[in-house]
Amino acid sequence: MIKAILIFNNHGKPRLIRFYQYFAEDLQQQIIRETFHLVSKRDDNVCNFLEGGSLIGGSDYKLIYRHYATLYFVFCVDSSESELGILDLIQVNIIQTHVFVETLDKCFENVCELDLIFHMDKVHYILQEVVMGGMVLETNMNEIVGQVELQNRMEKSEGGLSAAPARAVSAVKNMNLPEIPRNINIGDINIKVPSLSPF
Amino acid sequence: MALKIVKGSIDRMFDKNLQDLVRGIRNHKEDEAKYISTCIDEIKQELKQDNIAVKANAVCKLTYLQMLGYDISWAAFNIVEVMSSSKFTYKRIGYLAASQCFHEGTDVIMLTTNQIRKDLSSPNQYDTGVALTGLSCFVTPDLARDLANDIMTLMSHTKPYIRKKAVLIMYKVFLKYPESLRPAFPRLKEKLEDPDPGVQSAAVNVICELARRNPKNYLSLAPLFFKLMTSSTNNWVLIKIIKLFGALTPLEPRLGKKLIEPLTNLIHSRLVITLHRASVEKNVCLIGLVLPIVCVCVCVSNAVLISLSSGMPNHSASIQLCVQKLRILIEDSDQNLKYLGLLAMSKILKTHPKSVQSHKDLILQCLDDKDESIRLRALDLLYGMVSKKNLMEIVKKLMLHVDKAEGTTYRDELLTKIIDICSQSNYQYITNFEWYISILVELTRLEGTRHGHLIASQMLDVAIRVKAIRGFAVAQMAMLLDSGHLLTGNMQRNGICEVLYAAAWICGEFSEHLDDPMQTLEAMLRPKVASLPGHIQAVYVQNAAKLFATVLQKHEGATDSQAAQDTSQLLIERLPLFVQSANLEVQERASCILQLVKYIQKLQQKDVEVAEEVSALFAGELNPVAPKAQKKVPVPEGLDLDAWINEPPSESESEDEKPKAVFAKEEPKQSRARHIEVDEKELARRREARKQEQANNPFYIKSSPSSQKVYQDAPGVEHIPVVQIDLSVPLKVPGMPMSEQYLKLEEERRQKERADKKKKDKKKKKREKRGKGKRDDSGPESEEDITPAHQVDIVTEEMPENALPSDDDDKDPNDPHKALDIDLDKYVPSAENTLHKVTVCMLHAEKQGDLSITRHFLV
C-alpha cells in the first residue's frame, strides 16, 4: 500500500500532497517538513530509498523518492510494494504522462515546477488514474493518458470551469490592472477592449 | 431578475480562479498569511452564491489552500454541494476536494450516500469513475455497508475502466466492513481471469493485500496464481504474485517445490540480462530490474523452506546462486541496486544465515558507504551475522564508526545496533561480560545521544543478571560516578546522564563489592548532582542511604566509631540540598533519609551499634521480573474476575447511605475540636516546627541563614573554577578500561585454550582428527569450542508459576486486518455455493496436478 504521495520543491514548499490515510492539516504539514528534511540533505548520487521517517507508519514503511531539477517526488510505501517498481511508476507514469498530457495541450514542452504550481488540480486528476486509494491502479502509460485525455475532452465540451468570459477577464487581470487605471483615458479602453476578448 | 443575473455574471468576471490565487500568493511573499486570509473571506462570499460554477471555483481554490495547511473542513457542506452537480467538471472538483479533506469524523459524509449511489449508477463512466476514486479515499464503515452491493455490481460492469476501479476499491470496503468479504470473494476470484489486463492486475492487487495478513485463507487460489504467473507478461502482476507466493509457501511446502524451477529460470535469465543492460544504460531500464530482485528474495525463502521439509538435494545450489547474484548487485556502483541487494540479503539471512555470513567482508565494506540508507541496511544485516566468534571483532568495527559518525541520528542508530547485537537472544553471543561492560562504559562518552536510558538499562540488566560480573561492574560504575564527565554539559538535552541512574543504583545495591564506598558516597552527594533530572536524583538519594549502611558496617567492623560518625555528619550536611528539591520524589526520599540519619547520629553519640540494623533496611536480593510476568499469572480455578465481590449497591440504597456518610465525616471534626485546648508548651513547639518548615521551604524568604547558603558554603566545590571543555576527540578518561584490551586478552585466552585442547586432542584422538579436518576448514575453530571467560550464570527473569510461554499477546488487537481473517473455504452461507466452489477449485487443482491442494479442499 502507498500511504502518501508528496511533491515539494527544493525549499520544501508543497506542490501536491495526497494522503491515503487521514492526518489533520497541521500533522500533514509536519510530515511534509520532516520528509523534506530527510530527503533534502541527501546527495543526488545516493540511492533513492530512505527508511526512518517517524511520523508516517514506522519501521514497515519507507520513503521512495526521485529528485528532478527543482522538485522532489516522494512516495511513502509499505513492504508490499516493490521499490524499483515505485521508482519506475514515478518516472514513467507520473512525469512522462504529465509531459505527454501537457504537450498534447500544446501548453508545455517539458515538465517543470510552474506547471505543477498552476495546475495542481490537473496533476491530481492524472495521479487518480495511476494510484487509487493507496493501491496502484494502472501502470500502462497509454491507458492512463487515454483516460485523462477523454476526461479533459469531456470537461472542454462542458465549457470548462472558467468559460470564455472568465478567461478573458483573467487575461485582463494578467496585465497588472492596479497600475493601469491611474493614467488611463477612455480612448485607450475603446481601443484595447475589442481587441482582447471574444465576448 | 434579469438584472440579477447580469450582475452575477459581472461579479463572476472578477472572481479569482485557481491560477489567480496561486499567482497572488506568489506575489505576496512577505504577507502571505494576510493575503490568504482575505482570499478565504472572498471564497466564503463565493460559496454563498447560488451559481454552482462560482462554488466549484471556490472549492477548487480551497483544495489548493488545504495543501498549504489550511483547515477547510468548514466548507464540507459546500463540497458536497459541488459533488452533487450534474456537470462532470464540477463533480470532479467536488470529489477531489472531498478526497483531500473528508475523513471518518466528517459529519456531512452521511449526506453523501445517496449522491454517491447515484453517481455509481450514472450512464457516464467518468462520473462513476470519479465517484469511485473519491470514495476510495474517504470510505467510512457506514458508506461501505450501504454501498457494498452497488460496488459489487460494478465489478461486472461492461467497461473495464469501471471494473478495475470497482475491484480495487473492494479492498477498502473489506477493511471498513469485513462482512462484505465473504459474499464478494467469488466474484473477486472471477476477476483474476478477466480478459482485461487492468482488471486482472487490480484483482491480483486486492487479493495480495488480503493474503499478506491472512495467507492461509487464500491457499486455495494457489493453482490459479500459478497459472497467472506462468502466463502473465505484466511485470506488476508478476511482482505481486511472487510476493503472494512468498507468503503462501511457508504454509504449503509442496508449492515451493513447484515454484523453484520457474523462479530459478527467471533469476538466471532476467537478472543476467538486466544487469548487462543496467551497466550500459544506467537508471533507464529500471522496469526490467524490478522483477528479478523480488524473485531472488522469494525464491530463496521458498527454497530454504523446501529444503527443510523435504530435503531436496539441489536447494543449496539455488541459494548459492541467489547469494552470488546478490553479491554482484551489492558490488555494483548503482546505489539503488546496492540497497536492494542488501535488502534481499537480509531476507535470506532470516532463513539461511550461513550462506550470508560468508560475505561478511562485503557487508562490513558497506558500512563505509557514503549513503546512510545503505549503511543502515548493512547494520541490519550485521545483527544477524554475529556469532560468539566474531562478536568482539564486529563490535570493534562499529565502535570505530561511532567515533567517526557525524550525524547524531546515524550515531544513535549505531549505538542501538551495537546494544541490540550484543544483547540479542539473552546475551547469547557474549563470552566475556567484562568486555561488554567496558563497551557500555565507552559508549557513555557519546555526547548528545538520545539513548542514555538504553545504555542504562543494559548496565542494570547485566549487573543484576550476571552475578559473576557484579564486582567488576560496581568498580566501573563507581568510576563513572566519580569522574563526573557525565555531569558536565547541558543536562536537559543530554540524554547520556541517564547512565548515572544505572551507575548510582548498581553502586548502591551491590555496595558490598565496592573498594572504597566512602569515596563513592561523597561523589554521589556532590552539590552538582542537584542539577540532574529528578528521577536520577531520587535514585542518588536512595542509594546514598544504601552506601551509608555499607560504610557504617565497615567502620563498625573496624571499631572506628569516629569515622562512622563523620559519615553521618556528611549525610546530614549534604542531604538538605535534596530536601529542597522541586521534585517531590527527591524531596520525600531525602527528608525521610535525613531524619533517619539524624536519629542514627543520636544513637551513635550514645555509642550504640547501629550498622546491623541500618543494613537490615536494605537487605535481600531484588530479582529481575519478566516484563510480561504480570499478564501471565494464570487465573486460579473458580475465580471469576468479572463477578461482583459484593452485591452491587442499588440506586436507592446509595441514597440511603448518604446521611450516614455525612455523619462519619463529622466525627473527625469533633476530635479535632478537642485538640484545640492545648497548653502553651505545645504552642511553642509548634511555632518552632513552623519556623523549621519555613526554613526548608524554598518559597519563603528567610530571616535566618538559609539552607541555600549552606549549599553554597559546601566545602570547596564552588570555588573550583570549572572550565567547559569542548572536545571533538573522544575523551579518554584515565583509568577507564578500553574494550580493545579485552579483545587482545580474549584472543590470547582463546589461543591458549586451543593449544591446551590440541594437546589433549593429540593425545587422545589422533586418528579421528583426519576426518574432522575437513569440517574445521571454515574457520580456526568451531562455535562450540569457545567457552566463556568466566563462569557466567545468567539469571533468568522471574515468571509466575504455571505461566505458559506464548506469543499470542504480541498481536495488536486494533489491527483492522484481524476482522478479515475469515476462512473463505468454510461456512459459506449457501451449501450449493460451497459445493460449486470446491468443485471448481478442485478442477483447477487437478489441472495443475497438485494433489496437496486438492486434499486441502477435501479436509
UniProtKB/TrEMBL annotation, chain A:
Primary subcellular site in the record, as a coarse category = membrane
Q: Where are the transmembrane segments?
A: none
InterPro entries, A to Z: AP_complex_ssu (IPR016635), AP_mu_sigma_su (IPR022775), APS3 (IPR027155), Clathrin_sm-chain_CS (IPR000804), Longin-like_dom_sf (IPR011012)
Q: Report which gene this protein is encoded by.
A: AP3S2
Swiss-Prot/TrEMBL keywords: Cytoplasmic vesicle, Golgi apparatus, Membrane, Protein transport, Transport
Residues forming the AP complex mu/sigma subunit domain are: 1-154
Protein role: Part of the AP-3 complex, an adaptor-related complex which is not clathrin-associated. The complex is associated with the Golgi region as well as more peripheral structures. It facilitates the budding of vesicles from the Golgi membrane and may be directly involved in trafficking to lysosomes. In concert with the BLOC-1 complex, AP-3 is required to target cargos into vesicles assembled at cell bodies for delivery into neurites and nerve terminals.
Q: Which CDD domains match?
A: AP3_sigma (cd14834)
Its annotated compartments are: Cytoplasmic vesicle membrane; Golgi apparatus
The protein in question is named AP complex mu/sigma subunit domain-containing protein
GO BP, one annotated term: Golgi to vacuole transport
The membrane topology term of the UniProt record is: Peripheral membrane protein
Q: Can you cite an annotated GO cellular component?
A: AP-3 adaptor complex
The record's similarity note reads: Belongs to the adaptor complexes small subunit family.
Automatic annotation (TrEMBL), chain B:
Is Transmembrane among the key words of this record? yes
Which ranges are annotated Basic and acidic residues under compositional bias?
A: 657-693, 743-758
Residue ranges of the region described as Disordered:
641-713, 742-820
Residue ranges, compositional bias (Acidic residues): 795-812
Q: Where are the transmembrane segments?
A: 284-308
* UniProt keywords, alphabetically: Acetylation, Coiled coil, Cytoplasm, Golgi apparatus, Membrane, Phosphoprotein, Protein transport, Repeat, Transmembrane, Transmembrane helix, Transport
- Does Phosphoprotein appear among the keywords? yes
Q: Which residues form the AP-3 complex subunit delta domain?
A: 678-825
Location of this chain's protein in the cell: Cytoplasm; Golgi apparatus membrane
Classify the protein's membrane topology as the record does: Peripheral membrane protein
Any one GO CC term of the record: presynaptic endosome
Basic residues composition bias: which ranges?
A: 759-773
Which superkingdom heads the taxonomic lineage of this protein's source? Eukaryota
Give the principal location in a single coarse category.
cytoplasm
Q: Which InterPro entries does UniProt cross-reference here?
A: AP3_complex_dsu (IPR017105), AP3D_dom_metazoa (IPR010474), ARM-like (IPR011989), ARM-type_fold (IPR016024), Clathrin/coatomer_adapt-like_N (IPR002553)
Describe the task this protein carries out. Answer: Part of the AP-3 complex, an adaptor-related complex which is not clathrin-associated. The complex is associated with the Golgi region as well as more peripheral structures. It facilitates the budding of vesicles from the Golgi membrane and may be directly involved in trafficking to lysosomes. Involved in process of CD8+ T-cell and NK cell degranulation. In concert with the BLOC-1 complex, AP-3 is required to target cargos into vesicles assembled at cell bodies for delivery into neurites and nerve terminals.
Protein family: Belongs to the adaptor complexes large subunit family.
Subunit (UniProt): Adaptor protein complex 3 (AP-3) is a heterotetramer.
Q: What is this protein called?
A: AP-3 complex subunit delta
The organism encoding this protein is Electrophorus electricus
